[in-house]
């Protein structure tokens, strides 16, 4: 039987970064997602379960997480770990369209505001037991802000949660990369998953093995618990592919977007929630996303 095809529609105009001249506090972010068939007071969430060779699409309508009153929502099923995966806040290089990869770029002021807003949101999630982060500054600083809001937890650094190493492309503005480093750019665009990028860059296969193994280790350690992981756009898209190998691309992974995965024993990953940036919509803090799609870095 064919699977119902119900997908998030994304406004293409909303995928561009803000104008640097616009003051952060006066931006009104565009409506990011339109959920097919969703009511105005509910969020439709798509859940993908990967188990053995089957991928199932389950559609459910769930009330917004901030209005849920069911006391059982604080409990995590003992058969899986609930991992709240967050992309780091904005950096100046995100704003400029400059490729970061493993280069250690700090958050800008907008990114710190984004981190504070998502931290406030996650502080309302019950029973968060641990916070993990990539060891790169933009992720680690975001994670520290979140951990402070969630009861002063300590952030555990996980180097395997780093962004993809993009070799000779790192430090280049994306729109200029094809001219400045042609071979690296061609490798970056290659559909061969074993294609490494000149200058020490990783292949997609190497990224996949590194970051999915890291999340699975965290999942095994925290079964029956709810934890936060702060990482990067390319890594989060790899997680999506692991959970939904035969599904359409998940779209842009925006700065401080919330993506919730359930990891069970064996080969089972489930997406509970994807691309949630409602915390940014409510406050008017910038939504940006450079590096959160095919241009990850």
TrEMBL record:
Region forming the signal peptide: none
GO cellular component: cytosol
Binding site for substrate: 87-94, 138
InterPro entries, alphabetized: His_Pase_superF_clade-1, His_PPase_superfam, PG/BPGM_mutase_AS, PGM_Phosphatase
Gene Ontology MF term list: phosphatase activity
Source taxon at top rank: Eukaryota
Positions of the catalytic residues: 88 (tele-phosphohistidine intermediate), 163 (proton donor/acceptor)
SMART domains per the UniProt record, alphabetical: PGAM
Recorded family membership: Belongs to the phosphoglycerate mutase family.
PANTHER family assigned: BROAD-SPECIFICITY PHOSPHATASE YOR283W-RELATED, PHOSPHOGLYCERATE MUTASE-LIKE PROTEIN 4
The protein's name in its UniProt record: Phosphoglycerate mutase-like protein 4
